[in-house]
Amino acid sequence: MKNLLLVREIYMEGFRNLGNLIVQKYFKIFSWFCFAMFFVVLYAFVYRISTGFAFG
User: Fold this and answer.
1) pLDDT interval class at 20 (50, 70, 90)
2) Is 18 among the domain residues?
3) Which H, E and C letters describe the chain, residue by residue?
4) pTM for this one?
């Protein structure tokens, strides 16, 4: 839980004094897109491991 709060604080600090509203919204959307893509890749990797996919 402590790590999740730390990540949240880093996220909030990164956007606190960013400047232009359009740039701020763009980077927020981009960061959520990156988080989503990371979880898709993580899901695919766990799925391949659980089904016995031969990586080599």
Assistant:
1) confident
2) yes
3) CHHHHHHHHHHHHHHHCCCCHHHHHHHHHHHHHHHHHHHHHHHHHHHHHHCCCCCC
4) 0.58
> What is the span of the domain harbouring residue 11?
2-50
Q: Which of 43, 17, 15 is nearest to 29 (CA)?
A: 15
Query: Does 24 reside within a domain?
Result: yes
Residues 6+ apart with CB under 8 A from 48: 55
Spatial separation of the C-alpha atoms in residues 1 and 8, rounded to whole Å = 11
Residue 56 lies in a domain: no
Please count the structural domains in the chain. 1
Q: Is residue 14 part of a domain?
A: yes
Nearest to 31 by CA among 11, 6, 2: 11
